[in-house]
Amino acid sequence: MTMRIGHGQVCLQVPLGTRLGGYAARTGVSAGTLDQLEVHAVTISAGSSRFAWVVADLPAVNTDLAEPLAGRLAGSLRTRPELIWLSATHTHSGPETGCRPGGGRTPPEWHEQVLTAGDLAACTALATEAPAELTVHTGLLNDVGGRRSGPLLQQNVPVTVLAARAHGRICGVVVVLPVHPTVLGADNLLVSADLSGTVRRAVAARLGCWAMVATGAAGDISTRPHRRNQQPDELARLAALAADQLVALTTPPGRAIALDPVPRGPAEPRRSPEATNFAPKWSAPIDHGGHFADPHRQSSMPASGRCGSARPSSTAVPEPTGPPPTNPNPNHPTDTHQPPSTTVPEPTGPPPTNPNPNHPTDTHQPPSAAEPHAPHHTMPPGQPDAPRRSPTPNPGQPPNAARPTQPRHPPPARTTGQPHQPSTATPGQPDAPHHPPITGARTWSLGLPGRRAEPTPDTTALRQQLAEARRTGNAVAIRTAETALQGAELAASARIRDPRLAISTVRLGDLSLVGFGGEPYLALETTLAAEIPGPLVLIGYTGGYLGYLPTAAAYRTGGYEVHISPVAEGAAELAVREAVRLLGVSPAGCRQSRREGPCADGEGP
Q1: Staple partner for 56: which of 39, 246, 291, 316, CB 3.0–4.6 Å?
Q2: What is the pLDDT of residues 46-84, one digit of tens each?
Q3: pLDDT for residue 327 is more than 60
């Protein structure tokens, strides 16, 4: 079955004086731009199925952005809402967009701008779709990212590249980089996409094609073990180091993803990486070859990294078929489908002030202790400060109902789409027509156990650990102890009611993509890969923002991420179980089948 892949990008304009997100220690507002923030989109289609993935250079995206964008694009892209993803790169030098434990409302001045940019980028990707092959390349990224806390610091991380190839050559790549984009520190007041954006530009320049970078399972991974300082020159050094390795990774042919709806072959062996000794998920001999500039690339970034408000294709963007989605809520004017424009409006009005300048920490902005769910910005009259409602209850999307403040029993998870149905055809025989080559399912609000009844960490003991670290003079140990103490001091504000997680899954042939609306630990990707046959990629910061998702083992060692997490021990494993369900795999059944014979989805032992 022929696959078609397209790409589009739009720049986000950030005015001077904008409040930046990511670091509570930052006391000033934006004073300029180091590099342009962008919204990228990639569409992949086969037959009547289409997957659209939008990635924005923002600290976080919440469900009040992800749901409306899915509603807008479902009609214009002629696909289902659960096959439309919105992810954040999690830059800490972008505008504050509700990045705090439990999430928050997107500030009004950014809500419509991000929706419009995502709409335009996705429609540009649709207009530039061309026949291509998708290949998967995985391996190790050395000397750029590693585990930033815990008893054993990690020195390298696994990385995945999805390459679009036409006539045997690369015409675009999607890089899933499981590293916190926090090279620039809290003292930085220049707008920047940080590591994600710098790597994106470096890879695009080296390959001569478009590139999109998404942030993977980076909850416990950052550049801390390797960075020499937190200045722009160090950002450039680390990005160049990463780009060289990523380009080398794409040189071998890679594993081709076939979207034909036929049974999958035996599952490839997956190796669990140790703390300091990773093995590549897939390997092939490196054969250096040439690359070319994609002739279909109308929206890629040039080597200079500069762009206008949009880079539309010379092909006109097709109009949606049928009537656009209606607006069920007249109080939300952003709820209707708006045709993409060529410019993205700048936010208006004075920038919000920093409500919490006294916490010297590189953490996300916490909610106030007195009002755990209070948003950063006052909502218009008539819109109470309550759990947020979805503004687009389109068919196939979750209902637009607010959650009670203290439910006796948490409301059930809201799932859209059908879990993946494994192929039942025999070799040489195609599936029935109801088995599409691209499938998706999403749970918008999986209820997870909270921590309101737990005591907060002992800050006295953590202060002693910090003093001991300072006596050693080890910069990494000092920073780890500092953040552990800061997380403990903010722990009470992260004890929210009814924590909920958005989980998105997509199956592209035998390639599985899982998106968590939070900050998953890297080890969760390995846990998922053990349950799911075929290549699998875990992406964070997708469809919403809950906060950190530590593994159960991490709660026994503590650390900043555990202290500031709104969920209790075992919550991340529940999220993994839900992702496995959405992908249509029975964990116990598949494990048993690998011992005794074929499993339900046709995999061998």
Answers
A1: 39
A2: 999 999 999 999 999 999 999 999 999 999 999 999 999
A3: no
* Cα(527)–Cα(594) distance, integer angstroms: 16
For residue 367, give the nearest of 492, 549, 454 by alpha carbon. Answer: 492
What is the SS3 assignment for 232?
Answer: helix
Q: In this structure, how many other beta carbons lie within 10 angstroms of the beta carbon of residue 35?
A: 21
| pLDDT level of residue 506 (50, 70, 90 thresholds) | very high
Q: Compute φ and ψ for 206, nearest 5 degrees.
A: -70, -40
Name the amino acid, one letter, at 96: E
What is the pLDDT confidence band of residue 260, given thresholds at 50, 70 and 90? low
Model confidence pTM above 0.70: yes
CA dihedral 56, 61, 66, 68 (to 10 degrees): -90
pLDDT at 112 over 90: yes
Q: Which amino acid is at 277?
A: N
Supply 118's token pair: 């995502």
Give the C-alpha separation, 414 to 123, whole Å: 28
Sheet-wide strand order for 415-417: 415-417, 438-447, 500-508, 511-516, 536-539
Supply 105's token pair: 């409302």
Which residues partner with 10 through β-bridges? Answer: 39
Which residue, among 378, 397, 219, has the nearest Cα to 325 in the 3D structure? Answer: 397
Secondary structure element (H or E) that encloses residue 595, with its range: helix 587-596
Per residue, what are the HEC states of 292-340?
A: CCCCCCCCCCCCCCCCCCCCCCCCCCCCCCCCCCCCCCCCCHHHCCCCC
Cα separation, 166 vs 168, in Å, equals: 5
Q: Which amino acid is at 257?
A: I
Q: Rounded distance, CA 364 to CA 557, Å?
A: 21
3-class SS of residue 541 = coil
pLDDT in tens, 556-596: 887 888 888 999 999 999 999 999 999 987 544 343 333 23
What six digits make up the tokens of 494? 């992260």
